[in-house]
Model the fold of this input.
Amino acid sequence: MAALLHRLNSALGRILPERRLHLKTDSATRILHLKPMTQLGLMGGTAILMGWTIVSGALLVQDRIGASGTGHAVQAQSTYESRLAALADERDARAEEAREAQMRFAVALDQVARYQSDLLNVQKQNHELEAGLDAIQQKLGSAVSVHANEAPAEEVDLALNALNEQLRATAEARDEATATARLAQAEAALARAEQEQVMARNQELFAQIEDAATAAALPYRDMFAQLGLNTDALLSAVDADYAGVGGPLTPATVSTSGNAAITQSEARAKEIIVSLDQVNRYRIAADKLPLDMPVKSAFRYTSGFGQRWGRAHQGVDLAAPVGTPIVAPGEGVVTFAGWQRGYGNLIKIEHALGTETRYGHLSKIRVKVGQKVSRGALIGDMGNTGRSTGPHLHYEVRVNGAAVNPMKFIKAAQNVF
Done:
């Protein structure tokens, strides 16, 4: 670590040369070194702007994971924008604090330099006066010994007292300049400590967001693994549908050239953004599959998937009163809406990766062929049409034409929705 810091200081020395503060007293001289890395430390405060941007993404992840089953894209976008606007104000406040801390540090450094210069001038004057006093005392001594009878003793005493008074005033000015320089150094150290605290809080925030992104992605990975679907193909479809870009470009105004701390923070922030984007892709992909319950009201589970009465029952039966709302369990396109033998009033919806859902025995159909529906959208009412012994919904899920147990999809998503 020490070797790395030495190399960084050497590389930065061409841009910001090392500053040295000389603090002299009558008996000793102290030299304080302000290395390039120390001078550039405050520039790391700009990384707070990136940190607060990431906070908006993290809070968005938490909002989206804890959201109920409505899933409307317009509502989600509205929530995201309002949350982002609120966090942007807080981010600007944090950025302003960082700029003020940097300004205080710069002012402290200027004060240290100014007080050091004043101290050196006072010490120089003191040395000159001391040298002049020695010379005058020598001359006065000679004059007194040679012309003892020519000059009154009172005049000699007055001259010596005047010189001593001037020397005393010079010493007091020197002491005052020394105290002022020490105060400026303390202020600079305080500003530097404040900047280091800001950087530490920023790193802690990064760690929290990384943990949140990992925890948010895990339920989606487990769900897709249980379903055994081609997740890569599904994510590719998401990327194709959500690939729009645009808007004005704003040139960057902050340079991080040569600042290792900020460069490292930017790289870490970009990795977090990639993780958050992956979670968002998982969420969008989940919306495209029939993972939710088609009946949100109270119902009774009357028949499962598999053999029934010597024949294959290719779905599940959910019984409730006539008129109970039936909703789409995922995004899709209506491919059939009408009467079919055995099913009665039937709706078919095509979803992603060759999945299809069917809703039979409806009393009323509320969608049309070609209509796009989102997860949670009302598509029809429960009924008792077709080959049915009472009001219920016959719900099927098919993958590439083959019927599968709908509960497999519903159970796989129980930790997601």
Remarks:
- The longest strand covers residues 355-365.
- The longest helix spans residues 153-227.
- The mean pLDDT is 76.
